[in-house]
What does this fold into?
Amino acid sequence: MALGGGIISNVLLGIYPPVNLTYLPYPLTAIAAGVATFVFYRFFNNVGKPLIYADAVGLGAFSASGASLAYSVSHNPLLVTLVGAITAVGGGVVRDLLANEIPMVLTREFYATAAIIGSLTYFMLRLIGLGDSTSALVSMIATIALRFIAVRFRWELPRRIISESAGYMER
It folds into this structure.
């Protein structure tokens, strides 16, 4: 679901049809990445940590771009923060649900939290007067750094929150 988060964000912001479905380079890149993953599955299956770190870069880029897009529509801090995070993690949530798995963002990993903090960082930087490019770059770096640190030090979300979320899903 490489394009899922962007599609969800576009729909939430009232952008129809979603850009990921009309701007050809986006779906073509996703298709090429899918084919490459299929062809080189054995290689990708054994890369472990480097793939986790590459994913962190994507998390930072997508949260910053989503926050930037939301800010161009409205200067509402909740909208900017949530749309940034949804852009970054929405596709993975859809993928996990379609695979009948609990979405990774509801597990113990410090993942979506990094995207939320990064998106909020974008908003705060714009609020103090920094431009879009600088805010997006700093936001991206902040998100990536948080995710790298979380992986390195094995940060986890509090267990009580996780067990409550899982219990809610079972009802």
In short: The first helix runs from residue 4 to 12. The mean pLDDT is 90. The radius of gyration is 16 Å. The CA atoms of residues 73 and 91 lie 21 Å apart.
